[in-house]
Amino acid sequence: MKKLIFLTLLLTSFLGFSQIKHGLRDEQGRHIIPRGFVINTNDHKGEVFFKSDDYARQVRMGANHQVIRLELGKVSKFPGGNVQPKYLLKLDSLVALGKNHDIKTVFKMTVYGVDKFLWEEFWENKNDQQYTTYINAWKVIWERFKDEPYVLGYDIVNEPRKLKMKLSYKDLTDKYLIPLYQRIIDESHKINPDKKILFQSIFMNKGEKIDNNQYAEITSPIHRKNIIFAPHIYQSNVDFIQKNMDRFDKESEMLKAPILIGEWGFPTFARTDTTLVGNWGQLKYREMYIRTAEVFDRMGVGSIKAWFLGNRTMQNFLKPGPSTWSIFSDKTDAGTVERKYITDVIARPFPQAIAGDIQSFFFNFAKRELDINIITDNSKGASKIFIGANRHYPDGFSIIINNDFVMYYNPLKNVGLEVYKTTKDANPSDFIWDAKTQKLIVLKWGKDNTNYNIKIVPGLLNF
Fold first, then answer.
1. C-alpha 76 chain-centroid distance
2. Is the peptide bond between 280 and the residue preceding it cis, with omega within 30 degrees of 0?
3. Which residues does 458 contact at the CB level (< 8 Å), separation at least 6?
4. 323, 267 contact by CB (below 8 A)
5. 3-class DSSP assignment, residue 54
6. What is the spatial distance between Cα 215 and Cα 132, in angstroms, rounded to a whole number?
């Protein structure tokens, strides 16, 4: 009987039920794995500006989404704040830069830029003024981008806090946070019902972690459509990464919302840039990031890394000293000098958009091998696999599909993909290597509604 059940489950998976529940679907119905960066509009030194080359760099690091961090003081009527037309034009330009590079946008509201924002006062919501003012700030954004298909959605409250309130995290979540989420979602859907709403859990006070997780558990449903659970994970202890993500997975099931990790990656300390070994050396960071990436990929979740910035300033709130989330080390707003001990992990190969269902994918860092299992559906259009050959395969790479169709890219020739072995169903001209974006474009799979195993491996295969 057990054997029969196992075979039934196995057959069901092969007949088209995707094994990855957290990937999203685009307007063509392709299975999407979102990756990208938090884009700040300012840092502690002032405004941050980006140009087209910065977005081209994001694409070559695997980005297909960006999260633009909004400043509440520039889009609201909170004390000290005001809706600033110049700031809105800046947001327009960031969305356009993303669109020009096939990067979709999520906006995330922070509480920066006002004279003061007290979470305790916000939750009390006297005369409904706090919530109304906050929602009106969002309406500025919703109205502006309601017809822009490259705006995926809105992360509605960034890292909500309890601070000095005398109640449990569960009570704060159930009595205040979830009703606020429901109200914001309902107002948003009146303006743009097709946009996704991203939401987070309460960011717990210092010293109140549970299982080394700083974010309180959500245990009650929201009962709304088009929602995405967007927790943050800044986990330095590799023994807790899987445990934290398993809890998020459980919440996702209850909430009926896929996971997109809204921020991740433990901050880098000043000493890390000059040290290989030790507690905060580069080798530890590489392992920490690899272990996190492996858990993400086995679960099939998308992830957004903070921050796509240079390193003009550092913060100093952790015991080991000054730290930053910036992925570049140069002293400019938009950097170019990568912290490669983390960026090579962030920019790992993965299936970005698949015409069909992604069953599983995994990048083996030790072997430099990407393994993808899909069920094809050519009616959904072209597929895109980010390979990042410039950093992961300087020795060239080979593409192996079901072990009977093999192509390879030789960087010494720079003539595109070459065929080693093919089948009657495969059309090599449907496989295009785009060196500019570091992507493999598949115009059409050889067989439709078929299980395919795709491997990307280093070097030029010589059977």
1. 27
2. no
3. 367, 368, 369, 392, 393, 395, 396, 397, 398
4. yes
5. helix
6. 26
